[in-house]
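Sequence in, structure out.
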Amino acid sequence: MILRSSGLPVYNFCVAVDDALMRVTHVLRAEEHLPNTLRQVLIYRALGFAPPTFGHMSLILAPDKSKLSKRHGATSVGEFREQGFLAPAMVNYLSLLGWNDGTEQEIFTAEELISKFTLKRITKSAAVFDKTKLRWMNGQHLRALPEAELAAACVSSWVESGLMTAGADVASSPLVSASVALFKTSLEVVTDADSELRRVLSFPLEETLAAAAAPEGDEGRNAAAAAVLADNFAELVSAIVGAYDSGDLAGAISSPEGYKTWVKAVGKAQERKGKRLFMPLRLALTGTTAGAEVGDQLELLSLAEKDGAIADASAVAPLTLRVEKLRSWLKEQ
């Protein structure tokens, strides 16, 4: 049978005629197509076409070793693009699902793949689609981009999310260049740029302090913050509020170097150093106990307050607001 009851040709007839007319020489596909191959070869011969060379490969499986399906995540190129994956990274990763060049190399350009690919290196075992590995590989390709291309990709993500304003001059903004330089080594997908910048501009002090107050053994407890609070946190907070009122803090955060100089002075005055100095300052000024260098974060905050590129004002917790929250916390102690 070559026609369905609807009058449309069946799959095996269509694909054989289509490949023959396009002069396809090689057909490489999943092993689940093995039953179709015999039928298609018969159709080729019946129509007087020369069959192509067929090759069948093992299926790509989900992490749980089941057949990969929509329930395991994005299944179209468009969806992966929307999630922040680069085309070269997708090609690179997919090429290594069931094939390798016999070396330990994992990052390939399209040109390298074209020059190295051979059918002899296709493996017989099923490949597992590991999105964690894909994200890592995408990060490698992101970091290999020229600075201008990476900045343009980040700006596109920030504008699309509503964090930044759209405009021809946004890409050349000091805030953009400083942000890209700070986040470059931590990005895995382009859309990470949005969450990274929002994290720096926000000030989740209340949430961190609440997590610090959670009982021991509680899954949501922030042990690092709890340790900071127990080590006379109020002493450092008082020093920060005093530095803000005197104007010293505003001058210190204008550059990472200025911040470092100010931190040394605070440490000397408070007789603190190392973790006892850096952790409470981090918590007080960023509202968290982890992240990029505090001086770099504060420089971004300073730029965001005066740059004009930020469209979502609610995403920015300015220095004034941070100090007022610290001042309120002190009064409660």
